[in-house]
Amino acid sequence: MNKIFLNLIFLSVFSYAGLINALAIKVNDKMISLYDIDVTMQNKNISKEKAVSFLVDKLLFEEELEKNNISLDIFDVNDYLEKLASLNGMDLYAFKSLIKQKYPDSTVFDEEIKQKILNQKLTQVLLRGNLNIANDEDMKIYYENNKNMFQTSVSTNVRQYASKNKKDLIQIKNNPMIIIKSLNIVDSTLENNKLSSQLKYILNETQEGKFTAIFTSNKHYVMLFIKKKIGHTVQSFESSKNIIFRNIMKDREHKFLNEYFKKKKLSANIEIIR
Q1: In what order do the strands lie in the sheet with 270-272?
Q2: Closest CA to 134 of 243, 236, 239, 260
Q3: How many CB atoms lie within 10 A of CB 191?
Q4: Is 67 domain-assigned?
Q5: Most C-beta atoms within 10 A of its C-beta, which of 63, 181, 187, 198?
Q6: Could you tell me which residues come within 8 angstroms of residue 65 by beta carbon, excluding any fewer than 6 positions away?
Q7: What domain range includes position 12?
Q8: Distance CA 256, CA 265 (A)
Q9: Tally of CB atoms within 10 A around 186
């Protein structure tokens, strides 16, 4: 009886493994299994058709990375983050601290950064200097057409929570009505032109009626609740040039890669295997 039972278990496991490893699509010399498609559908909450398209694109992208001998290391990531921090007027440590608050699951942010760096590296190799570099005229047009992107509030009504214990602030964020005696609470109005770059970034990233990320100030953990943003002002063209240039070039690179991989997909040897 036990032998029959074990045989049944083995057959069941074998059948399931067969389903997981079933080949559904062959892209050039690489395979996408039914299991890959199902996992992608669940993780990204997308249809089967979109999951297949995503996985085909992913394989073609990886194929191009291999062909061009493109890889990634920790120095690439740190260099990218340093430039991003500098762009927002912060040092690397402060920027990483804020990112950790914004992305509770750090692996999500890590994967986003890695993908952006690989995109840039591949674009540089494929373009070989053929992408038009944004000039002052391009940047002025972009600035005039997207002034809403460079708006900041004149001042902000906030409720500030401060504590030496970070857990107090996490509790407040989860339940704003809770009373914590060790918590210092102050209502105030912050004049944006008097704030540090770090605090400006935090306020700009946080909507009305929301809590900011937790940050440190005067040896305390601090969190703000954004009650109301008052008035608005537009950052000058000169002070926004670095961000504008980055946005334009990012758009151009994105369009180039999209067109490139559309052509790659059309020329790829794609087979449906049942």
Answers
A1: 30-33, 23-27, 270-272
A2: 243
A3: 10
A4: no
A5: 198
A6: 71, 118, 122
A7: 2-51
A8: 14
A9: 9
What mean pLDDT comes out for the span 161-185?
Answer: 91
pLDDT in tens, 77-128: 888 888 888 877 777 777 777 777 677 677 777 888 888 889 888 888 887 7
In this structure, the answer to whether residues 259 and 135 fall within a common structural domain is yes
Close Cβ partners of 115 (under 8 Å, ≥ 6 residues apart): none
86 & 210 share domain:
no
Name residues whose C-beta falls within 8 Å of residue 153's C-beta, 6 or more positions apart in sequence. 192, 203, 229, 230, 231, 232, 233
pLDDT in tens, 237-258: 998 898 899 899 888 888 888 8
Whether residue 142 sits in one domain with residue 90: yes
Same domain, 128 and 247: yes
CATH number of the CATH domain containing 218? 3.10.50.40
DSSP codes of every residue in 185-220: EEEEEEEGGGS-HHHHHHHHHS-TTSB---EEETTE
